């Protein structure tokens, strides 16, 4: 859903595509929040995806805080002019006789061929 966005010239169509991507993450999830990357500070997780035409997208994440737990991440698809930087913070909320797990954070989407941040959002 993201890889085509930097190529959209009309700013309104580009904005609508970013909103569609953002809203695609709003779905019913299984109960509970997954724990952050790793309880050891400084340990990183890296991977890449093979895209069409021998292109790649890269992902790096690291737990950057233990109390409170925070994971920071970086995604880059250089051939598609796309970069995302963000931080995730799992949070618990006590509701009387039950508890809820929430995932908070912020993400910055940068369209590298546009020369500025195109969108940012908080969850």
From TrEMBL:
Transmembrane segments: none annotated. It comes from the Eukaryota. SUPFAM superfamilies: Oxysterol-binding protein-like. Pfam families: Oxysterol_BP. InterPro entries: OSBP_sf, Oxysterol-bd, Oxysterol-bd_CS. Belongs to the OSBP family. This is Oxysterol-binding protein OBPa. The gene is OSH6_2.
């Amino acid at each position: 859903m993201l890889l085509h966005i930097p190529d959209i010239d009309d700013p309104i169509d580009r904005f609508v595509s970013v909103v569609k991507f953002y809203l695609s993450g709003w779905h019913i999830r299984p109960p509970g929040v997954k724990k952050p990357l790793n309880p050891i500070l400084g340990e990183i997780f890296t991977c890449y995806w093979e895209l069409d035409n021998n292109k790649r997208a890269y992902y790096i994440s690291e737990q950057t805080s233990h109390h409170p737990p925070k994971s920071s991440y970086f995604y880059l698809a250089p051939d598609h002019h796309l970069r995302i930087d963000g931080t995730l913070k799992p949070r618990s909320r006590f509701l009387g006789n039950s508890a809820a797990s929430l995932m908070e954070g912020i993400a910055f989407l940068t369209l590298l061929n546009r020369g500025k941040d195109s969108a940012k959002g908080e969850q």
